[in-house]
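Please decode residue identities from the backbone states below.
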């Protein structure tokens, strides 16, 4: 057959956005267009693969004081499902497809307990899922393949763990005796949901507090590779260049209403161990006048995929500070790993 035959394979999904939750079925049709000549094959199948990708480096010495560092790319599959469309029967030498169009429907059920898609498919480290149609040809010809990437998230229902609704306390103090205490309304959220926190400053020396930045950080570890990124960064408007002896504030801000993979821990694999850990945390960064006086507080949070209630009742994305008194709570936040395990 002529060159460019691989363009004759198309994977059509039954939905316009290639996004799926664990436990859902990935379904669609595979269309094969034999453009010219004829296609000879031994087998045609589609497979859905979930795998992690990470990199390591290896340094080799030539024995003369010179070294070379090599980057090695690793892929470990943790999920695999396959559907065969056509294969040789007993005594059959080859499958022959003349010019024309051929199509096969497929439906593959995703597991419930799988890690979320992380990073772009060609970036490292990553967790990626892809459909691949393979036309297995006689040994003297190269196989033809067509790949389509999909996004998969596990269902993380925060309602399954009441600890996600618990109020949590946080605080810290710097060398200038600025005492920062705060209360977070809960530790479990979904994208687009409103986060509410109250905090109190005790500043007996009336040192100038220049600003407070709030950051939402995402960090993940895939095997031996780790990355961190900032999801949101804002400066709280009511705490800029203040030296009050006491400050009490409340603020609210929406978690960005974008597609964010949920908090998750995974360890599994088909032949080798694929381990994935995804975390979120809030970071309050306090900038204070003087040298070595800045300090910060970090609060782990859980990001899920299913809300506690109808998000349509939430406020629009905003940052609305107002002065109130901080409530008193004595309960300590639950252990992060415990919460992650319980909401699976």
């Amino acid at each position: 057959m002529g060159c460019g035959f691989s363009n004759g394979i198309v994977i059509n999904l039954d939905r316009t956005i290639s996004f799926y939750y664990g436990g859902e079925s990935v379904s669609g049709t595979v269309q094969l267009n034999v453009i010219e000549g004829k296609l000879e094959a031994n087998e045609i199948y589609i497979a859905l693969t979930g795998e992690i990708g990470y990199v390591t480096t290896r340094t080799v010495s030539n024995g003369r004081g010179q070294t070379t560092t090599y980057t090695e790319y690793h892929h470990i599959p943790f999920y695999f499902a396959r559907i065969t469309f056509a294969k040789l029967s007993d005594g059959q030498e080859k499958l022959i497809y003349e010019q024309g169009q051929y199509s096969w429907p497929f439906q593959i059920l995703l597991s419930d307990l799988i890690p979320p898609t992380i990073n772009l498919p060609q970036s490292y480290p990553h967790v990626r899922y892809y459909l691949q149609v393979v036309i297995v040809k006689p040994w003297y010809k190269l196989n033809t393949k067509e790949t389509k990437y999909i996004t998969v998230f596990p269902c993380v229902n925060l309602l399954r763990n009441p600890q996600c609704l618990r109020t949590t306390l946080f605080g810290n103090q710097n060398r200038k005796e600025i005492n920062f205490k705060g209360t977070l309304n809960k530790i479990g959220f979904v994208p687009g949901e409103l986060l509410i926190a109250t905090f109190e400053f005790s500043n007996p020396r009336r040192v100038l507090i220049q600003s407070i930045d709030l950051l939402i950080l995402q960090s993940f570890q895939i095997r031996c590779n780790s990355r961190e990124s900032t999801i949101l960064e804002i400066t709280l408007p009511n705490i800029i260049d203040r030296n009050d002896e006491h400050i009490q504030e409340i603020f609210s801000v929406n978690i960005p209403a974008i597609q964010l993979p949920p908090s998750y821990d995974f360890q599994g694999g088909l032949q080798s161990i694929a381990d994935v850990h995804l975390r979120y945390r809030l970071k309050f960064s306090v900038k204070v006048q003087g040298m070595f006086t800045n300090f910060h507080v970090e609060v782990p949070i859980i990001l899920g995929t299913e809300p506690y209630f109808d998000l349509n009742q939430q406020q629009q994305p905003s940052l609305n500070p107002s002065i109130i008194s901080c409530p008193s709570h004595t309960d300590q936040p639950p252990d992060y790993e415990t919460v992650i395990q319980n909401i699976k």
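Observation: Residues 336-342 form the longest helix (7 residues).
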